[in-house]
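Thread: "does anyone have the structure for this chain?"

Original post by V.I.:
We have the sequence but no experimental structure in hand. Need at least a predicted one for the grant figures.
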Amino acid sequence: MFREFLASGTLNLIYAGVVLTSFVFAVIVLFGAEVGDILDFDFDLGVHADAGFDFISVSPFGLAMFGATFGMTGLITRLWLNMEAIPSILWAVGIGLLVGGAAQALFIYVLSPSKSSHFNLADDAIGREVEVIITIPDGGLGQVAFDNVSGRVTLGARSARGKRIRRGEFVQIERITGRVAVVRRIKTE
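Reply from O.Q.:
Generated one for you, tokens below.
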């Protein structure tokens, strides 16, 4: 059964599907970052920090480049070079890993140090001291603002204790839910 699968055109369809999926993924990541946090969601892999692997540090473009290269190499080796299935898969994985790794290195060593405007809102905002720009009413929604490398960021804001916080006061962001910050007054000593 496995030999029949590898001998048929199904492998070519899988290669083509990976190319298409990688392209769509890259477009979603690109426009998702530009539009804001519309596509932002939390995903916990259950990997502890001690494990030495942080999935978040893998560039989505590195993943997309791996997929696109894997699929295109597979199609080229099958359709133009008439390779058998197993060598084709090995070439596709090898070249995909090289190009995906190079894209990841580019992301880490070139784009990340330049402080690209694409950042994770929760990581950037949590713990930050910010100014209330629209009073937060008892149990209601106000607004806070702060500056980061991308410019001025404004977020809806709720009091962690449900108490009113006046405009002009400085607060600390405890957590982010969507585009709303849950804030607490800064303790003055």
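V.I.: this helps a lot. The first helix runs from residue 2 to 7.
O.Q.: and Residues 34-56, 114-118 have pLDDT under 50 and may be disordered.
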